[in-house]
Each structure stands twice: as structure tokens, then as C-alpha cells.
Amino acid sequence: MQNRLKEPSGPLSPRLTIYRWHVGMLASIGHRASGLALILFVPIYLWLLRGMTGSEDNFAAVFNWLHSGLGKVSIWLVGISLIYHFCNGIRFIAIDAGWGESRESMRRSARVVFVFTVLVAVLLAVML
Amino acid sequence: MRVVKEPGAAHSGLSDWYWQRLSAVVLALLLPLPFFLLVAVYGGAVDQQGLLDILDHVVSRLLHTILILALIIHAYMGLKVILEDYVHTIAWRIPLIGAMLVMMATFGIWWLAMIWAWI
Hints:
The structure holds two protein chains of two kinds. Chain A has helices at residues 14-17, 23-52, 56-67, 69-96, 103-127. Chain A is mainly α.
């Protein structure tokens, strides 16, 4: 058992399996999920960058891919991940600085971040 | 600052915390820029020549370099925390963190090469 930190039957994460769901926890999980999505987009971005800085045909291929269904969904997903991670990151730094640290204001700011992200998601979906 | 008497095997808890926030501030300023550029290309506001003029400028090369470094620091620490929280088997966790580091370094070098036009 030396190579395991926890019992196999133990919880995956207290946040996922034990604690009661509430908005602050959802904000924290969302920060991880959006961060992971942003990391996964980096290889796609490099592929796009390589195409865009290549020949004219490469540029046209990237342009067409961006305007395809998959391209639009990718831009939309990375856009909402970015705006969520950005806003919630500022929220986290504010909390670290001791600003809005009370339970009530942490929940309120989490709700503000969620509502703003949904608004941006709708706006981006309309624009793309 | 108060000194913790028994900081554990890491000897200091401040370093990761501090770097994660420092890189976060850099990314908050720089990461929206490539997204705007991508949307500008998508919308047709920037054509290929315009894009190359922007990317080849020495200022954007320097900003891009800072962005890549901050992104690798931030992504490494964030993903490490996620792996430490959800992968409990040490025999899996350490190779995964190592593989992640190698992949990030590879993509980082590839990205730098593209920005400084080595390839």
C-alpha cells in the first residue's frame, strides 16, 4: 500500500463526491475545467498559427476551417473558457487580496461571474 | 511574514502560490490578445499580410515570448494541482506530471520557433 496515498475506496475528491453542491464550489470546478479546455486548445492554436503564417493556400485552408462548424464551435468554446477563466481568475486574486472574502460575497461574486459568462456565450454564439 | 515551523517536504509553500498568481496577472493582460487576433482573422478584419505585419513586429514577438513563458508556468502549475487532486496512485501521477512537462516544453519550443521564424 506504500505507493497509494489513499484507500482505493476513498473519494475521488471531496468536492466531487462528499460536499454539498453550492455555487462557490461550482466556480472552483469551473475554473479547472475551463483551464483544461484552454490548455487543450493550445495545440489547435499552434496548428492554426502555422497555417496562417504559411502560404496563401495554407491561410485559406485555416480561414475555411475557422468558418466550418467545428471551427466555429472551437472558437466559441475557447472564447467562453477564456472569459470565464479570466473573470473567475480576477475573482480569485481579489479573494486572495482579502477583498470580498465573506461567504456571502464569495457566492455573490461567483454568481456574477456565471451570469456574465452566459451573456458572453450567447453574444459570441450570435456573432459567430 | 510569519515563519511556519514545520513546512513539510516542500520546505516552502509560497513559491508555487506566488508564481501561479504572478503568471496569472501576466496572462490576464496578454492572453486576450491572440484570441482577438484569431477573431479578427475569422471576421476578415485582418488579412494574411496584416496578420504577418502584426506577428513579425518585434514588440509582438517579445510579448508573445512573455506570453508563452507565463502560459507554460501557469498551465504546468494548474494541471499539476488537478493531477495531484484526482490521480491518487503515485505510480501514475509522477509519470503523468513528467509527460505533461515534456509535452509543454515541446509545444513551447515549437511555438517560440514559429514566433521567431526559426522554422
